Amino acid sequence: MYKKVIDYSLITLIISNCIAVIVETVDVVYNSFGEFFVIFEKTSVCIFTIEYLFRLWNCTIEERFRRPIIGRLQYMVSLRALVDLLAFLPFYLPFSTVDLRFIRILRLFRFMRIFKLGQYWNATKLISNVLKAKKEELILCIIITFALIIIASSFMYFAETQAQPDKYPSIPATMWWCVTTLTTVGYGDVFPITIIGKVLTALIAILGIGLFALPAGILASGFAEELHKGKGRVKTTCPHCGNIIQ
Amino acid sequence: MYKKVIDYSLITLIISNCIAVIVETVDVVYNSFGEFFVIFEKTSVCIFTIEYLFRLWNCTIEERFRRPIIGRLQYMVSLRALVDLLAFLPFYLPFSTVDLRFIRILRLFRFMRIFKLGQYWNATKLISNVLKAKKEELILCIIITFALIIIASSFMYFAETQAQPDKYPSIPATMWWCVTTLTTVGYGDVFPITIIGKVLTALIAILGIGLFALPAGILASGFAEELHKGKGRVKTTCPHCGNIIQ
Amino acid sequence: MYKKVIDYSLITLIISNCIAVIVETVDVVYNSFGEFFVIFEKTSVCIFTIEYLFRLWNCTIEERFRRPIIGRLQYMVSLRALVDLLAFLPFYLPFSTVDLRFIRILRLFRFMRIFKLGQYWNATKLISNVLKAKKEELILCIIITFALIIIASSFMYFAETQAQPDKYPSIPATMWWCVTTLTTVGYGDVFPITIIGKVLTALIAILGIGLFALPAGILASGFAEELHKGKGRVKTTCPHCGNIIQ
Amino acid sequence: MYKKVIDYSLITLIISNCIAVIVETVDVVYNSFGEFFVIFEKTSVCIFTIEYLFRLWNCTIEERFRRPIIGRLQYMVSLRALVDLLAFLPFYLPFSTVDLRFIRILRLFRFMRIFKLGQYWNATKLISNVLKAKKEELILCIIITFALIIIASSFMYFAETQAQPDKYPSIPATMWWCVTTLTTVGYGDVFPITIIGKVLTALIAILGIGLFALPAGILASGFAEELHKGKGRVKTTCPHCGNIIQ
User: Which of A157, A161, A184 faces D183 most closely, judged by CB atoms?
Assistant: First the structure.
C-alpha cells in the first residue's frame, strides 16, 4: 500500500517531466515560465538521484543481486539501472550539450506492472502475443520493404538523375524519395518528371499497396489464430450431458 | 401512423437545415438567396421551439419522467433535451457569436429508431457489435499511436530544429508533422531536410504501415468471430449425446 | 467458330479505338498522325453502324424481342443497344461538342462472356461474390465516410475560415480538403494553419486509418466465409471408408 | 564445409559490390575514395570472371548439363549463367554506357539455398505459398487497378484539361495524376481545381481505399487458409471410420 503511493508519485513526476520537456520547447511558454522549469528540473533531478541511490542500496533484497558489493555493481550495469542513471546524470555534467532528459519516458516501463490488473491488460497481451507469433513474417515484410527500397532507388536514380540532378543526386538520396512513395506519404518535395521515372513510380506505388496488404493479412490471421487458440483451451462443456467437447 | 408522418417531416426539416447551413457558407449562394435563408432559419426555429415545448409537456408519459414538475426538470437536463434546446436557443440570444446551428445534425440520432427496420440495420448492428467487441484493442491502438507520436516528435525535434527552426520550432509543433507522416497523409508543408531527420522519417513511415495493419487485422478477426458466433448458435451438436448446444 | 472470329475482331477494334482516344490527346502524336486518326475514326464508325443495324435486324432471334416491330423497338431502348448507339452516334451529329467516344470502352462488357472460360474467371467470381455478400456493410462504410466528411468539414470550416479565407471559403470547399485528408492522399494544396485546425486534422487523419481498416476487415471475413462455403459444398470423402464428410 | 566458405566469401563480395554501386553515386564519397572504387571494381570483375569460367567448366557434374560441349552451351544460355555473365561483361566492353553493375544484386538469389535452414525460411515459405495460392485474385486486383486508372484518367482529362492545360495535357499524362491519387501517395504536383474534377477525385480517392482493402482481405484469408491447412494435416479424423485423413 505504502509502496503503491510512492510508485504513483514517481509515475506522476516522470509524466510531468516528460510534459515539461515537451512544453519547454515552445518559446512562448519558456519565456513566461522559464524560471519554473529550471526549479522543476532541479527538484526532479534531486528526487531521481535519491531514488537511484535508494534503489542501489536496497537492490540486495533481490536474489540475483544479493552479494553486498558485486551484487550492487551488477545492479548498476543492469539495463533499468542505466536508464535510471541516464535520466538525471547529464544534469550534473557541466558541459553536456546532449539533451538526454527525454530518456525519462523510458523509466515508465519500470512501473508497468501496476497496470497489469487494468482493463487493457488483456488487449495488450493479445496484441503482443500476435506480434510475437508473427514476428518472423513481419520482420520478413520489413526485409522485403528494404530490398524493394534499395532496388527501386537504384533504378529510379538512373532514370531521373539527368533530368533532376538536384533532387536525385545519388542513390542514397533517392532512397528518401522511395520511402515516401512506398509508404504512400508523398510529401511532394521530390517527384519524378521523366516518363520512365513516372512509369517506375506507378509500379512502386502499386507495390506499396501490397506493402500495406501483406502485414494486414498476416496480423489478421494472427489475431484469428490467437482467439481460436484461447477458445480451445477454455474447456467447452455440453450443457446436456456434461462432457468436455473439442 | 400519424406519429410517423411527423417524424419524417421533422427529419426532412433537420436535413434541410443541415444542407442550408452547409450551402449558406458559399458566398455566391448566400448573396443570391440570403433572404430565403433568413426566412427558412426563422421558420425552422419556430417549429423546433414548438416541438421542444410539446415534448417537454408530454414527457410525463414516460415512466422515468412521470412526476409533473421534477419529472419535467429531469427531462430538461437529459442529453437529448439539451441537444434539442441548443439546436434553437442561440437564435434567441441577441449577441451570440457562436454558430451552434450545426448541432442540429445531432438531432437525427433521435429518429434513428425509424431506420431500425431498414435493410442496413443488420450491417449497422454487425459493425457496431464488432467495434464494441474489439473496443479495448482499438483504444490500445490509439494509445500506441499517441505514444508513438510523442516519442517520434521529440526525437524529430532534436534532429531538425537547428536546420529548420521555422518548421520545427517546438515539440508540440513537430507533432503536427508526425501525425501527417504516421497517417501517411503527407501534405508536404513540413518535411525533414537533414539526413538523420530523413532516416527517422523513414522509420516512422514504415511504422505507420503497421499502424494501418494492426486495426485492419483486429477488425478482420472481429468480423470473422462475429459471423462465426451467429452461425454457431444454430448448428453445433455435442458429439457425446447428440444434443444441440448454444 | 465463325461467330468467335467476329467477336474477337470487334474486341480488337474496340480496344484499338480506346487506345486511339487515349493516344490522340497527346499533342505530339496527334500532330504527326492526325490524318490517320481521322481515317481510323471514320472506318470504326462505319463498322459500328453496320454492326448496330445488323444486331437490330437479328435481335428477333432472342425470345424477348421476338415480335417484328415492337421487339426491335424494345431492343433499341435496352441498355446494351443504347451503349452501342452512343458509341457512334455523336460522329453523325454536325455540331456535337461532347466527346462520347470514350463510351466505347463500355462495349467491352458485351463480350465478357468470351472470357468466361479463362483462368481468371474463378477469381472474378470469388471477388464479385464477396463484394455482393458484403454489399450492405461496404455501402454502410461509404455512408459513414460521407457523414464523417460532412461533419468534419463543418467543424474545420469554422476553425480555419478566418485564418485562411481563400483556402477554406465555404463548407463545400472544405469538403475537398476533408476528402484528401480522410483518404490520406494529402496533396498539400490546402492544409490547416491554426492550432485548433491542426488538432482537428490529427483526429480526422487518425479516423481515416479506421476508414481503411473497416473495409479491409469486412472483406477479409467475406473472403474467409466464401472459401469456407465453397469447401463445404465440395463433398470431401474419407479415403479410408469412402463416406462423405461434412 | 570448404564450399560454404567460398559461398559466404562470394556473398560478401556481391553485397560489398552492391553497397559500392550505391555509395559511389554520392559525389562526396566518390571524390574522396574514387581510386578505391576503381580498384575494387577491377578486383571484383576478375573474381567474377574466374568464378564464371570455373562454374562453366564444372557444370558437367550436373545431370542436365552432363554432355561435354552441348551441356556447357546449354549452361551458358541458362538464366543464372546469363545473370552471372551480365554481372561482369559490360566492364570489358570499351564503349558500354549502360551501367549494368546493379544486376549483381540478382546474383544473390543463387546463394539463397544457404539461408534455407535459417529461422526465416518458414516465414518465407508461408508468404510465398499464400502469394502463389492467391496469385489469380491478386493479378485481378492489378487488372482492376489498371482499368480504373484508364477510365478515371479519361474522365479526369475531359474535366480538367481546359482549366489546367499544362497539368492535364493528355490522357496518358493524366494517368500519372491518377496513379498518385488512387495509391493515396498524393505528391501535390498535379491536383484538380474545377468542381467536377474535385468531385471525380473524391470518388477516385474513396475507390482507392477499396484498392487497399481488397488485397488485404484476399491475403488475410490466404494466410488463414494456409495455417488451417497446415494444422488440418495432422488431426482430422473421419467420423465414419475413425481414420486420420490427409
Answer: A184
